[in-house]
Amino acid sequence: MARKKEYIxxxxxxxxxxxxxxxxxxxxxxxxLEKQMGINKFSIYSSFGSKKGVFLECVKSYRKKLLAIxxxxxxxxxxxxxxxxYFYDFLEFAKDNNDFxxxxxxxxxxxxxxxxxxxxxxxxxxxxxxxxxxxFESNVRQExxxxxxxxxxxxxxxxxxxxxxxxxxxxxxxxxxxxxxENIFSNT
Amino acid sequence: MARKKEYIxxxxxxxxxxxxxxxxxxxxxxxxLEKQMGINKFSIYSSFGSKKGVFLECVKSYRKKLLAIxxxxxxxxxxxxxxxxYFYDFLEFAKDNNDFxxxxxxxxxxxxxxxxxxxxxxxxxxxxxxxxxxxFESNVRQExxxxxxxxxxxxxxxxxxxxxxxxxxxxxxxxxxxxxxENIFSNT
DNA sequence: TTAATAACTAAACAATCGGTTAGTTATTGG
DNA sequence: CCAATAACTAACCGATTGTTTAGTTATTAA
Lengths: 188, 188
What we know:
homodimer, mainly alpha, Tetracycline Repressor, domain 2, 9 helices, 0% strand, elongated, DNA-binding
């Protein structure tokens, strides 16, 4: 019927993901995406429609990759200790080939947001954050003696710590981030 | 001799600061700066040389404004309790007219950084972070029973929490951020 | 009053932004 | 083998990026 695609969409998305992860949304240009994905603009636009389309597809793929880690968190009956393990697993997940810790793709992008940001992207990132928060909540709930209010407080605290871990990775090195995690969980 | 400037440099810098604070470095354009500062490109360039020049001047001014809060932290003999107060003071400092919490100008900008970022900006932001960390350290040192290693760990923990507070402000509201602060200090 | 100086306006600069499109190349069913 | 179809290349789009510059207006010392 017609010519075959010379690339696999899921593969080029994972390549694009690296860029968004490292640089955020705005700083990543179509030119950079062309180079990194190894295909040209036409192919990118015919496959994903727009830059936003590429990004949202990357978020989807990122979410999928995170599932392996969050599944472990979901299945663990270790309560807050399970969350701690999640933070360590996440740190491994979030580093590139040079041990540079990229933080969380989603929280990095969330940090770019302001009142005027694209509502679709805003919504996607917000939903993602809520999803993780829900996982934290159900784990905290396993712990004895917490009221429903305290459970929410603790979960939000862990979410905010995740943000901190993410932003701090730009300034701190890996051992320091490990100290950070130890400190987060030192009072539980 | 010649015509007088029709603006005061420190005043237009403070106006520019609002933009960088809210939007970060990249997203803030010269066009936006012109409008917000109330002067045109020529004046901006003749006063500050470049966009980078404007930004670095903003960081300087931001640092000055923060001094009022850090001075309180420096003079307090309340140890970690003093740091807690600093976090609350900072939260007040970091909100705009609509109660939107902008986070920290410096940590917001730090979050944009990657390996390829401008080394001058990178350095300025890193120095700033170190300065705050130093303040935290001297406050933690006031507490009894901490080893030198523990003092550094605690200080880094507070710095990272500051990052978290900053990034999280994009997603959370003010009451939740207050809960976050309470949680940070609940184990001390 | 006038010449010198500096701050102003506004248009333009090359480069890049995200996005499109005309024309060519490869694949496949009939 | 050939027409139909879709993926490719590459030039191009208008808009915007940070930055510069030519020309005008205001100020002041002489």
